[in-house]
Amino acid sequence: MNFGGFVPLSTVDWRGKSVCTVFFRGCPVRCHYCHNRKLQTGSDIRDTNEVFDMIKESRIAISGVIFSGGEPTMQGDALAELMEMSKKSGLMTGVQTNGAYPETLERLISQSLVDYVHLDIKTRWEHYPLLLKVKQKTVENIKKSLEICKSAYFSGDLPEFQVACTLFPGREDDVLYISKETEGVDLILQQGVEGNMDTLKFEDLKKIADKLNRTVRISTREDGEVTYENNRIVIADSIVLTDILQARRNY
Predict the structure, then answer these.
(1) Tell me, what CATH number does 29's domain have?
(2) What gap in Å lies between CA 188 and CA 209, rounded to an integer?
(3) Could you read off the pLDDT of 48-103 as tens digits, one per residue?
(4) Which of 13, 15, 38, 243 lies in the 20 to 30 Å Cα band around 116?
(5) Total count of domains within the chain
(6) Is the pTM of this model over 0.70?
């Protein structure tokens, strides 16, 4: 695999779980706000067994593995191999993806290799080519990925599925369109952060959420992540320490 990095313990990459995170290099999308921009290109080829050894070293403190990037589904064979090894060792598996490679997601779901998909929907479909410098074929692939994951989630073949929308000032109206595309799916309104650009604050995201008439999660650097519904905060999320303790008992 083209290796991008490894975090041995994370409590933020999979809500309610302690996980390790494996990063892949390479990505077909060029988001201007990407916080892993250095992983969009470059090369560090590693054997998947070497990477799995890193996962095994974290086993005592985790219950799952998140595969992120870059774009992990870009390296479908390596991703499937690492997920299979992780599942056989008793770990849950999740992937953070932009949806550009639906055939990989379809494969992972059909082979029961993935427990959780976090899909980033960047903007309205018609804005993708100009805003993110991608071809229309990529946009169609992302649409297909959304439909694959929704279908699998509704049928029970994909245990967990969520869509995240990263928002900046001036892009607030995108959420209304994305919300319609993701009915029945967990939706996160995520504060976009880039350099010295203005950011939408928690109160701004609440006002957007109030227009959607549905439960959403709101995530900001200042206030963490909360579940929000009908003009009120339902749940304030926190680190689940019992998950770490359970992982140690299982180990």
Answers:
(1) 3.20.20.70
(2) 10
(3) 999 999 999 999 999 999 999 999 999 999 999 999 999 999 999 999 999 999 99
(4) 38
(5) 1
(6) yes
